[in-house]
Amino acid sequence: MPHADHPSALQSFDSLAASLGGRRPAVFLDYDGTLTPIVARPDLAVLDPETRAAVAALAQRCPVAVVSGRDLDDVRGLVGIDTLVYAGSHGYDMRGPGLRTQIGLEYVPALDAAEADLRAKLAGVPGVLVERKRFAIAVHTRQADPAAKPAVAEAVRAVVAAHADLRLTGGKEIHELRPNLPWDKGRAVLALIDALGLRDAVPLYLGDDETDEDAFRALDGRGIGVRVMDTPGPTAAGWSLRDPAEVRAFLERLTEYIGQFTGR
Prior knowledge:
Blueprint: H1 13-19, E1 25-29, H2 49-59, E2 64-67, H3 72-79, E3 85-88, E4 93-96, E5 99-102, H4 108-122, E6 129-132, E7 137-140, H5 149-161, E8 166-171, E9 174-179, H6 185-195, E10 202-207, H7 210-218, E11 224-228, E12 239-241, H8 244-262
Parallel strand pairs: 1-2, 1-10, 2-3, 10-11, 11-12
Antiparallel strand pairs: 3-4, 4-5, 6-7, 7-9, 8-9
């Protein structure tokens, strides 16, 4: 059941639509846990054809961007819709029709060094996956022995402490090292709104993880946040959906709604 403070964006769709005030939305979508279920390994998070079709149909009626912690080329290949805008690595790497922006290129050498340190420290820990991205390093612990996870976290903190150019963030069974810059999904979404000329649109952001809270907070008072969560929890989003299946249904409903007043 949806939490009273975060009503279902699907069950209470008419109320959410009313908050648009007749204006066109600009939709920003996380990938893992939002468009696809959370899985044991990143390579298993494959977008199903029905959800891809729902995203493509929505993109015919309003601007759509995918904002992901994955590398830009990775998430772009997984979604497979060329007309979308993509923000990879939590917005450090953005590309779309007429758009190309990279933030933090000067931090790549620090990431290279930290990656070597992490692989050396964690090589003997079964189930731990060190995933290098262009602008981040993710340490996945979902398949690790629970008893080993505190030591993994300590090893990651030690590496971050040795590299002042980097900072540590977290998420669901993940430790992530990023450039030590004031940049996140929220700032990336605001930058995209300006770069794409979307100031007259209502930004609508869907995400499921701690990193998405930056976007919910950035849009507070000027847009709509929808947190994907199977059980109620604290969030800066005003609305909720339970899982990627509900996300797909919501996107389909939103596409129908926009069609009613755009004539497309």
